[in-house]
Design goal:
300 residues; elongated; alpha+beta; 44% helix; five-stranded antiparallel β-sheet; 23% strand
Amino acid sequence: MSTAIFPPLPPHELAKEIQATADRELQWLLASLQDTFASLKSGLSECDALLAPTEPGATLVVSSLRSESVKGLVTRVGTRLVKGDISLRLPSLPPPPKSASYPLHLSSPLILAQLSTARNLINQALDVVDTSTWTGDPTNASFISGQLRLLAELLLDAKSSLRGSDDQVSRWPEDALEEGLFDPALPGTLAVNVLIREGGIVVFFRTLQVVEGGVSEGGSGGLSLRQRLGLAAKLPEHDEMERVFGFRGAEVKVREKVRVESQDPSLMAVMAKLSALEHGVGVARRSLGAVMGEGEEDEV
């Protein structure tokens, strides 16, 4: 099909018509983006509702898969763990007298910083959508382009907060839970860390051995007398065995390390929704950039 204009226009009039057509296309796209913003607001509101503190919350199993090392339940309400009862059976953590396991009872709500961050970012994104729709000028292409760029950054950061990172695992000495969150309080030889990874709740339990002058207390790598004599089970190997960490003013080694994970359906749904919203914003940015004559490098 021919793209020639008949009757043909003089060059200066043709340039004007091309510009007028581009302007009309840009205004049409800006008007259609208001429907995109309405869809974004609906999706973001759903994400916010999934992270809202709604009773009775979600009760999740926190247990080791192929052993009796960890058995328990935790309850998440919004961005906090409000209940937690876990039993530990670890060779390096003797249970109280007349008990077969070491009990951990969460006595105070635990704020999950990653979830708080994600929800805060989602609420900021909702504010950006409202500004794009009601406060700002929806016919200003540069303004809408900037709003879409800001939305893309907020969605990426919110999703990253729910995905977690390896750096969080390595910061366990600084991020270990306070002893007073539990009743009875945690012993000084036990460190507990709670993280969000890929939309699930991950809990690390580490039993610790204080290092004095480069040697673990008790000698022989911190093994008990029964273990040195071969009368007790050998502690399982892990990736932090030979390392020394600074923990609450002392140098320690990790004798035993157990990781348990519980997938949270609501958090997984939030991640999936954020990915879909991020894709939608990306499509809108590319479309607007093409009409405005911006390259992909300008959209970053």
